[in-house]
Each structure stands twice: as structure tokens, then as C-alpha cells.
Amino acid sequence: MNPGNRxxxxxxxxxxxxxTLPAIxxxxxxxxxxxxxxxxxxAEIIGQDPSLTLKVLQAANSAFFALRMEVTSIRHALVLLxxxxxxxxxxxxxxxxxxxxVDPEAKPQARALWRHVLAVAVLAQDLSETGxxxxxxxxxxxxxxxxWLVLISQAPKVFASLATEKSRVREEAEExxxxxxxxWGAQMxxxxxxxxxxxxxxxxxxxxxxxxxxxxxxxxxxxxxxxxDIAGFKVLNxxxxxxxxxxxxxxxxxxxxxxxxxxxxxxxxxxxxTLWRIMVG
Length: 281
Fold this sequence. Notes:
The protein is mostly helical. It folds into 2 domains: 22-101, no CATH class; 103-281, Hypothetical protein af1432 (Orthogonal Bundle), CATH 1.10.3210.10. It is built from 16 helices and no strands. Helix 3 crosses helix 5, helix 8 packs across helix 9 and helix 8 packs across helix 11. The chain is globular, with a radius of gyration of 18 Å.
């Protein structure tokens, strides 16, 4: 394509190269967090995959959770961390492979993307009041940037060029390269038959008030996206975008709270990096 073309890049939605969501990920996303029967099912699902079992136990025993005793089994992890947390670890481990299975020339950008979404997931979870909200803020964070995954699979060279942009803000850079990662992310979420909240966060995580009455989970992902960029977990080299003040108000925060959070998030880097290293292996 010629840079500067205002038309969007054509996406081959029926291409075999387009990522698919593993059936096990669908099962994990569909599980309720407080159902004891689902906890038994979750232990069975993870236990059937030795590699996944190892990843979950490594994460549970990492500094990320700072438990005072060693986790020795999935059932033990469920007791100590709860079903929701174990489900998040398992889903993150599965999606790691999905996000990093890309053309070699786009591997560095794909790794940066996965670090970013993992950071957004952790920070969005921190914004939840109880940690048990539905839809789960962590899972929404993991899957909020599917549009970049579409671009990596369809036009890795364009993604690599866009990722190095420094002279334009994100929206202008996307327009220059014929990209709309929010639109494509929403379309991908729909193709993956994901619940409506996943489509909404993909479509409007940069501009939440494009929704008439943006739900709290969208505002949380919007803020978490900003905080992840502040912490250095960026997808692009474009300037960090501001948080919509209305989003802060909707979350019961103000500009002073935001400043405190921006300072505090820098201390989260090592914690997030620990989880990242375990997920990637």
C-alpha cells in the first residue's frame, strides 16, 4: 500500500492466517467465577494439559502473588487463589501462544503487544472494586486489543512500520497507514462469538464516550490502557494519550487520584514483568 492512503487496508476475514480462539479459551471465558461445579471443571480442564498445568503452578508460585506457601496442585491453587484468579492465569497462558504465533518479522511487535495487554489486564483488575466483577476486568484487558492481532496477521510489515511512528499521535498514525485497530478488534471479537462487552472494549477503549452511556468496565480498560503506557508497556511509539476526565469521574476519581496512580504504576513494572516472563516461558 502507499502510506497516506486514507482508505482502510483490506482485511481478508476468511483467510486461514487470521487468528482463531481456541475452544478451551471459549470455555474459560464462559465460566462463572463463583460456581463450585465450574471450579471442579476448571481443575479438570487444566489437568488434562501438562504444559498448561506447569504454567499455572509457576505463576501461582511466583513473586506476582507472593504466597507464603508453595502451590503443589491445581486444586491447591484454587483453594489459595480462588477460581477467578486460576482461570485468569490459565487463559493468559493460552492466549500467550495465540498472540505470539506470528510472522517472524513481526515477532518483536507481537511481544510488545502481549506485554501491553497483559499489563492492561493486571491494571484493569486492580481497578475493580471486589475483583469478582462480571464481565471480568482482567479478561477484558487481555482481549481489548484484538485489532492489532488482526493487523499483525494480515500486514506484519505495516504493523512494524506503524509501531515505530513517533511524529504522529496514534489516531493520525493509524489513518496514515490505513488502519483502524478498534474497529477491526470489535469485528474480530464478533467473529470469535465473544460476549458484547468484549466487542465494546475493542471498539471504544480509546474513546469510551463514543458510547452514549459507557459502562464501568469500558472506563476501567480505558484508564488501565493509559496506565500501562505510562509504565512503559506500549504497543506504539506514539505519545501517551490522555485519560478522558469524564472517565475519571465515572470511576469516582479525580486528577489528583490520576497523578497518584501514574506514580504508583511505575512500581508495578517488575510485578507485571514477572507474570510476563512466566507466560512467555
